[in-house]
Each structure stands twice: as structure tokens, then as C-alpha cells.
Request: fold
Amino acid sequence: MAKIDFGGVTEDVVTRDEFPLTLALEKLKDEIVAIVGYGPQGHGQSLNLKDNGVNVIVGQRKGGKGWDDAVGDGWVEGKNLFNNIEEVIDRATVVQYLLSDAGQKEMWPVVSKHLKKGKALYFSHGFSIVFKEQTGVIPPKDVDVILVAPKGSGRSLRTNYLAGSGINASYAIFQDATGRAKDRVLALGIAIGSGYLFPTTFEKEVHSDLTGERGVLMGAIAGLMKAQYDTLRAMGHSPSEAFNETVEEATQSLYPLVGNHGMDWMFSACSTTAQRGALDWSKRFEAATKPLFELLYRDVQAGVETKRVLDTCGAPDYRKKLQQELDTWKNSEMWRAGAVVRSLRPENKNKK
Reply:
């Protein structure tokens, strides 16, 4: 492992220098990797593994979007795409369990019966294992239980891979029954396209992931944007002006600077008036939101959030209700204005 200084704290990180793709493929040469569930992670990870030369098969119930997506991506029924998930698990030496969290709970009684001694059970989220009291997911003692969690969506994992880069990932070992769990998890992490692998635990992965999704990655930023947009509109600003000052300038100008160079660089690239205001008000927003983040983390840790996910996402009418919630965002003035603003970007202006 490489020792890397992160802001004054030294951490052990696995890189392609000490674990190159050639070594990963050597470790995986006798493995058959089954992808159970063809959602965003199943899509990205399976295609990257296949393109890198790993023996991959896909298990997905026929008739749904996942099956159609898999066929569209070039998986062939009866060759490397199977409607019978039990058959796929029986064939595999590594089972990548990439169904939704609610789906993992539902399918576990079927999956668990086919996890024979020596296989590896692979997750990309610690949810089912950590909150086993809610999910019922308790693996047999004679299989490896490992995790590789890309730090981005499955779609981005694939897009970045095709662009010649990748998405770094966290990895963890919950159970090493064969003595090969570490080799397996590192090899799979590299083979799905990661350049760096950061060690973690199942607990830390799920606690940080659920907090991040509900916080600055998605939930908090959506709420902050709406609060500012609504305030500007209430004060008489037009929809286009409110959207430009809330979303467009952030996503098209400022956030890319933060991602590429850091917050200090973004501040330094702005006017002194913007710098001063941002530096002063950031402290006030930090003070106002810190208690909310602490509450969020406690709810994640206590299983409040996971119970809500399982109760709602496992309901028969969930997809219908989800679409209604998404349509509320899509049809709001803010995001209808956003669709027009996006269409007027120079790169989109002349598209037919």
C-alpha cells in the first residue's frame, strides 16, 4: 500500500502501482463473476469488468427495464445473460449483489440458498450487512464477504472508463472465509476501473454514504437551491435571473473550479466582493446546518434512514409514487426555468 498524506493524516491507499490491472486479472483468471441486478452499478461494473477481460455473467429477471438495458448493452441471453438468478449464482465463484437495497432484502432468501462454500459475496454498499436486523441479510460463514464502493454513480463509472479514466473506490472485507478475500476485493476494485482504493469498513461506508446522499451530495444542495430560488422570486427577480444566480453559475462555473482546484482556488478566482461575502456567510451557514448534519448522522447510525428506505422502496406502488415526487421537481417553476436556461447554453443553442 502507498502511504498518502490527507490534510496532515497519513492513510494507506492501494494504487495501480502496486496492484496493476495485470495482477488483478491474474488473481481473477479462475473466477466467474455474476452480476445480480442490472441497475446503474450493475451496468457500469459489469461492462468495465468484461472489457478488462474478466469472465462475467449477468442475472436479471426478464421483462423489466434492467433486462432490456442488459440486452441493449450487448449481453446475450443464454450465453452471458440469464433470466434464472439461481442458475447464475450456482455458476459463479463471485456474486456481485447489486440489486437495490430493498431488492436485496426481497431476494436474499433465494440468493442465500445458492451461496456455497468458497464463493465470494460482493457488495457496493454496506446497507444490507450493517443493518441485518432490518434486511435479514446474514451470509453463511464459509463465504468471503467483500465490498467495493465506487465514489460515484454506476453510469459515471462507465462513462469515465470509456474516456480513459475511472472512479476511485472504497473497499472493505467483512468476512474472509477462504484466505483470499483481500486479493479478490483488490482485484475486483481495480478491474472495475478504480485507480485508487481506499480502505474502510462496511459500517463506515454505509454511514458516510447515507449521510452524504442526504447531505451535500443531493438532499442538502437541492434544498438550499430551492430556498435561495424561492427567496429571489419572492423579492421580485425573474425566473431566469433567480435560476442563473442559484444553479447555472454554480454548476457551470464555480463547482467545476472547486472540483478541479479546490475551494480556495475558486474563491481566489472571484471578485473581492464575492470573496468577502462568501467567506463571511460560509461561517453562518456552517453554524446553521451543523446541528442538522449531526441529527442526520445519528438517524443514519440508528437505522432510522434505512428503515424508511426499506419501508417505502419495498412497497408495491413505490415506483409510481417516486415518479410523482420526481415530477414535482421537474414541473416546478424553478426546474422548468432551468430546462430553458440549459437549452440556451452556447453548446446547446444550435442543436436541432
In short: The mean pLDDT is 95. The chain has two domains: 2-200, 215-349.
